[in-house]
Structure formats: C-alpha cells, structure tokens
Write a structure and sequence with these properties.
Length: 161
C-alpha cells in the first residue's frame, strides 16, 4: 500500500511541477534508499539516511536545510544543518556547502556534540521532468575531533516543484 501511495504522489508531483533550477522552485532531496556510504576514523563504514529540502533563491542557487539519522553500532548520530547548492548552466552539475550540528550517542550512554563543515559535488540526472537521481561525493570536516570527519558517496533522488 505504501508503494502505491508513494507512486501516486510522485505522479501527481511530476504532472504539476517544473523541473528547472529557477528562482522560486522548491527541492526535496530524500535518500530513502539509504545509500550514504562513508568512511571516518571513528565509524569505519556506515549506511545512513538524510533528507535535504530547500528553495531556489536565485537561478541556479538553492538554500537548503538538512536532517539525518544514523543508527550504526556503537554510535547513533543525529544531524541538523543548513547550506546551499550552486548549479552550473542548468546541466545538473552542482557544488554544495553547509554547516551541520551532529549529536553522537554512544553505546554506554554518553553523548558528544560536534559542528561540521560539509562540501559536496554531484550531478542531478533527470529521469522525469521534475524527478532526479543524484549521486554525489562529499567531505564533512569536524571542528571538534578529526575522528568524526568523513568522506563518502551518497545516492538519493530529488523532487523539484
């Protein structure tokens, strides 16, 4: 039932949305697949889920907010942040940057909070007028502890409306 509801929502959105990187366009970029593979000195390899949402304030430039959660062992991580994306010549190639606040909860019950600066580069491959698959590479530098800095590859999809 959920699959059918998701397909209906995507069809309605694609019929009414404009898939351009123009001022006033909204973007929703979930990584439902969970393909957010990364490596850091602390976690080695993990699989996570993130959601970005934002609005194009000018042609080719979007202001984004993001949230994420990762329930890997032995550390759970929750992230909230903001940033921007710049798209080049409506080709789908983009560069992004942002600042995140991450909360780490360890198996023993202790907590840690860290600020991170993130950079990413990717491509928005259109599979429909307003739906994209977006592979990207990224690096998140942790201000507090370099063990929490990470790099990786993420794959998600985006809806433009």
């Amino acid at each position: 039932m959920r699959k059918y509801l998701l397909m209906i929502c995507m069809l309605i959105t694609s019929a009414t949305a404009m898939a351009q990187f123009e001022k006033g366009t909204w973007i929703l970029n979930p990584s439902f697949t969970g393909l957010n593979f990364s490596h850091s000195d602390h976690e080695k390899v993990k699989v996570g889920i993130n959601v970005d949402a934002g609005c194009f304030l000018a042609d080719g430039f979007a202001l984004m907010v993001r949230g994420g959660a990762d329930w890997s062992k032995p550390v759970d991580k929750y992230t909230l942040g903001t940033g921007g994306r710049a798209y080049f010549n409506k080709t789908g190639i983009y560069l992004g940057a942002g600042v995140d606040l991450s909360r780490y909860r360890y198996k023993g019950g202790s907590h840690d909070t860290a600020w991170r600066l993130g950079l990413d580069a990717g491509y928005a491959f259109f599979i429909a007028k307003n739906v994209t698959i977006e592979p990207a590479v990224y690096y998140n530098w942790c201000f507090n502890d370099n063990d929490f800095s990470e790099w990786g590859l993420k794959v998600g999809f985006a809806l433009y409306f």
